[in-house]
Amino acid sequence: MKNVKVLWVIILLLLMVSGGLVYKFVTGKVSASDDGRTNVILTKDERNLILQEMRDFLISVQAVSQAITENDMDKVADLAHKAGMAAEADTPGSLLQKIPLSMKTLGFGTRKKFDEISVTAKTKDAKLARQQLDTLMQNCIACHAMYRLPEPQ
Ligand code: HEC
Question: Rounded to two decimals, what is the model's pTM?
């Protein structure tokens, strides 16, 4: 009987830990920002990593747009692929835990949209690729409207 009790305590503890992890995965590490957005609280290095990814996003959007204009669809396919999910391989799990689920969804959604553009580029459909880039940029706008990355104090 004693063993059963111990087992229940262990099960309960495990449930609490996994529940806590799921909760963190959904909410992330956040606080309210005085400009109406949500602060995502990261360390200095994590913040620098994300902001670097952001500057790379801007470079990718510009380069893909220019390649579409120049109708160089092989280049579009290559650039868009590099900015897609392939770029996410090195993102540390600890960082993902601090980012709220809706922000993760928008972030991965943006990567997937780059992958879609890469697929479209292989069919040489420049007009569709342009439309997909227009839609992709709505993700940039949506996320910036919702979240901030305050500098660590
Ligand atoms: C999942 C959310 C998210 C998406 C999607 C997103 N961003 Fe950002 N971006 C942020 C946040 C948060 C910041 C920090 C804003 C702040 O603190 O005010 C930021 C900052 C930036 C910065 C400033 C970088 C710096 O060094 O300060 C640039 C440039 C940028 N984003 C470009 C883009 C572009 C271009 C896209 C779309 C291709 C994009 N972002 C998509 C969340 C996002």
Answer: 0.89
